[in-house]
Amino acid sequence: MSFFKSIPWKEKLILMNKSMKNYRRHLLSLASTLLACLLFLSACGSNITGETSTARSGSPTAIPSPTLSPLLQKQGAVELESFQQWITLMQQYGGNVSTYQQQYTGDQQALNSATSDAAYQAVLKRLQGHVSVIKLPAMKTEATALQQQLQQGATQWSQQHTYYDDFNQTTYNLGYEYGVDGISSWAQQQIDNSQTLADYQQTIENLHMWLSNFQAYKADFVDKTPYNQVHQTDTQWRTEYGPNKQFPHIDVNGTPFAYEGSHGCVNMSTSDVQWVYNFASTLSTKIVIY
């Protein structure tokens, strides 16, 4: 203060103006520095935020995969297996399975692609419908193939095996009972009349039985066992023979045919059979076999 008192007032004013200018210059420099720092920090912050945002957006968000009911998946596997079995059966007997095989492939792919229980159930319902539709055609195909096998086999064998009867000078085709005028015709009628799975199943069982009987017929034809001994075809279903063994049909070690089937062949010599044939008169002679 003593310094300002000792100088004139104008000089004091000049000195004060210079001090104010220096003070403003200093404040302006400080403000510029602060502003630059703020801008720098802002730029760094935006880069960090951008990199973080980019990093976050670059990582795919994990979406939990839908969970399908294990019970539904098991049902689907069972139905697919059933469908394939029917296709195989139909193919085994010469049926055209191209359409069913395409359906199977489509159903299998659709089940594997299902992402929800609702979608899986919809495909499963369609698959079950396909399985239901193939059953009748498959069983009809099997029955028809078995009937043709019996008819063709009997016809061919009958043409190759004949019997000449010198009594009436007539040649007979053997095995005609299984041909077009016999069992084969019955089988075809059963197929034509079948409408349900149970109908076809019964027809198929009958055909298997008739085919087995025809095989036994052919085996017996070439069996040279003497008439008074057990034939090989009989041993397939009976183990006991002789007196008191023919009635009732009791054979504890035999097959069910031992109870339900016939007593076996009427083992007679050719000469005896010829005598009966010549002796008996149609509709007048009673013959009792025991």
Describe this structure in words.
This protein has 290 residues and is mainly α. Among the domains are: 70-133, no CATH class; 224-290, no CATH class. Helix content is 66%, strand content 3%. It contains ten helices and two strands; from the N terminus they run αααααββααααα. It has helices at residues 2-6, 9-58, 70-92, 98-113, 117-160, 183-193, 197-221, 232-235, 257-260, 270-279, and strands spanning 162-165, 170-173. Strands 1-2 form a two-stranded antiparallel ribbon. The chain starts with a helix and ends in an 11-residue tail after the last helix. The relative contact order is 0.05. Mean pLDDT is 78; it is low at 1-7 and 48-59.
Query: What composes the largest sheet?
Result: 2 strands, antiparallel
**Separation of termini?**
163 Å
How is the largest sheet built, in terms of strand order? Answer: 1-2
Strand content of the residues, in percent? under 5%
Secondary-structure element series: HHHHHEEHHHHH
Q: What is the total tally of β strands?
A: 2
> Helical stretch count?
10
Would you summarize the structure shown here?
By secondary structure, the chain is mostly helical.
For this entry, give a set of tags:
single chain, 290 residues, mainly alpha, 10 helices, rod-shaped
How do the helices and strands line up, and which of them pair or pack?
Layout: H1 2-6, H2 9-58, H3 70-92, H4 98-113, H5 117-160, E1 162-165, E2 170-173, H6 183-193, H7 197-221, H8 232-235, H9 257-260, H10 270-279
Antiparallel strand pairs: 1-2
Helix pairs in contact: 3-4, 3-5, 4-5, 5-6, 5-7, 6-7
